[in-house]
Design a protein that fits this description.
Number of helices: 16
Bound molecules: uridine-5'-diphosphate-glucuronic acid
Oligomer: single chain
Organism: Collibacillus ludicampi
InterPro entries: 6-PGluconate_DH-like_C_sf, NAD(P)-bd_dom_sf, UDP-Glc/GDP-Man, UDP-Glc/GDP-Man_DH_C, UDP-Glc/GDP-Man_DH_C_sf, UDP-Glc/GDP-Man_DH_dimer, UDP-Glc/GDP-Man_DH_N, UDPglc_DH_bac
Low-confidence stretches: none
Radius of gyration: 24 Å
Structural class: alpha/beta
GO biological process, one term: polysaccharide biosynthetic process
Number of strands: 14
Strand content: 5-15%
Pathway: Nucleotide-sugar biosynthesis; UDP-alpha-D-glucuronate biosynthesis; UDP-alpha-D-glucuronate from UDP-alpha-D-glucose: step 1/1
Family: Belongs to the UDP-glucose/GDP-mannose dehydrogenase family.
Length: 436
């Protein structure tokens, strides 16, 4: 099949490469010419493990092309798959301006029947709106059909998630279009769910919000465990042994970030409000997550006030919202740094994806230093905070680390370490709901 994928972010690029591997002819289009030039050469403008090699092998098949000419991509392909961003507005609602601009482009270039597949995460009602908007614009609602086909890719794991999806959700009205989209994914072994637009849209929001709920739930349990003197990691392990609960997304810590959970949660709350429905659980999930980083920093504050002279020097391990990505959007690590800046003389950050201060939210903040080695970041520090559980941090020699620090204190924001191991290395171990 001939498919155009509009939007070359991590979702669009991964989708384009995987569809190529399913023997389709794919044109990936994006308005950003610099990005297109890089992708044409097989260079990813973002970090996504495994995708770089896969992309090159797909480019070599000759079936995958990148272009900045969206008009031509629309003209040349029967299936148009849209994977543009839908960022949050200040009031939490999703900003659909990129989607509208794609609709405008399609309206100018459409000459024959197209199946338009919306992969972007869009609020309930968007597929219907898109269909009406485009139909009115071109004055002919029979020239196209719209299908909702939400994606469930995780950043850092996008390629594997796309190659082996748990489910494929296809939402739409037209049987002809549903059949065409089914054929696109035919050779993939995944559970297929065919439904209507609104249900497909809500499956995506409900899934992300449920995973976010699991995280905020275990984070609330961590706060209770903190008072009870219990260990939240053991609690999560015990809960996860119940197959009805499952062990995933029960890692307590400084909270969830990224471009999806915080945004989708806010958008679903806004949707519920618009529709006049309750969203009490979702609001609580958002509240726990918003306040979670401060629980950690305040715990550290209380200890440092007793043992270290202000202003402090703090080392930060990891700034991205999770490992294996260069994405810092809504990263709780940023909140941790912001909360501590005033009390500190220096904050030394190490993250495998950051080389200069310009790549942080504090390009002009003299107190923020970017380090190349862990030893450099720890040298003279009053405490170190693990914010992102990058694999490389698991190999730190804490005995040696302690010898470089002014006060050997570790605040483990991701419960990455065994408290006994850290303590036996001569470090003081702090976390939430794990003892001390
Ligand atoms: C999430 C979903 O997992 C994907 O299924 C979905 O497609 C994607 O959003 C999207 O809507 O595009 P992603 O945001 O890439 O994927 O990352 P996750 O791996 O889900 O992690 C999100 C955040 O939760 C991270 O900050 C992570 O550190 C945190 N987290 C995750 C926890 O704090 N505890 C956990 O147990 C799991």
């Amino acid at each position: 099949m001939k498919i155009a994928v509009i939007g070359s972010g991590y979702v669009g690029t991964t989708t384009a490469a995987v569809l190529t591997s399913l023997h389709h002819h794919v044109t990936a289009a994006d308005i950003d010419i610099t990005k297109v030039k890089k992708l044409k050469q097989g260079i990813l403008p973002f970090v996504e493990p495994g995708l770089d090699k896969f992309l090159i092998s797909m480019l070599e098949t000759g079936r995958l092309n990148f272009t900045a000419d969206i008009y031509q991509a629309v003209k040349d392909n029967q299936v148009l798959l849209i994977a543009v961003g839908t960022p949050s507005r200040a009031d939490g609602t999703a900003d659909l301006r990129f989607l509208q601009s794609v609709a405008d482009t399609i309206a100018c270039s459409i000459h024959e029947y197209k199946v338009i597949v919306i992969k972007s995460t869009v609020p309930v009602g968007t597929n219907r709106w898109f269909s009406d908007y485009l139909g009115n614009k071109i004055g002919n609602p029979h020239m196209f059909d719209v299908i909702s086909n939400p994606e469930f890719l995780r950043e850092g794991n996008a390629l594997q998630d796309m190659l082996h999806p748990d489910r494929t959700v296809i939402g739409g009205k037209s049987q002809k279009a549903i059949q065409i989209v089914k054929e696109i994914y035919e050779s993939m072994q995944s559970n297929l769910l065919v439904t209507d637009w609104e249900t497909a849209e809500l499956i995506k929001y409900a899934s992300n919000s449920f995973l976010a709920t699991k995280i905020s739930f275990i984070n609330e349990i961590a706060r209770i465990a903190e008072h009870a003197g219990a260990d939240v990691v053991e609690i999560a392990r015990g809960m996860g042994m119940d197959s009805r609960i499952g062990s995933e997304f029960l890692r307590a810590g400084i909270g969830f970030g990224g471009s999806c959970f915080p945004k989708d949660l806010k958008a679903l709350i806004a949707t519920a409000k618009e529709l006049g429905a309750d969203s009490k659980i979702l609001e609580a999930v958002e509240y726990i997550n918003r306040t979670q980083p401060n629980f950690y920093t305040e715990k550290l504050n209380r200890l440092l006030q007793k043992i270290a002279k202000r202003p402090w020097k703090i080392a930060i391990l990891g700034l991205t919202f999770k490992p294996d990505t260069d994405d810092q959007r809504e990263s709780p690590a940023i909140q941790v740094v912001n909360h501590l800046l005033e009390e500190c003389e220096e904050i030394r950050i190490i993250d495998p994806t950051i080389q200069t201060r310009n790549q942080t939210p504090w390009p002009h903040e003299q107190k923020v230093t970017i380090c190349r080695t862990t030893t450099e970041s720890l040298s003279g520090a009053d405490a170190v905070i693990l914010c992102t559980d990058w694999e490389q941090f698991s190999n730190i020699d804490w005995k040696e680390a302690a010898s470089h620090m002014r006060h050997p204190v570790l605040l483990d924001g991701r419960n990455m370490f065994d408290p006994d191991d850290i303590r036996s290395a001569g470090m003081r171990y702090l976390a939430l709901g794990r003892g001390e």
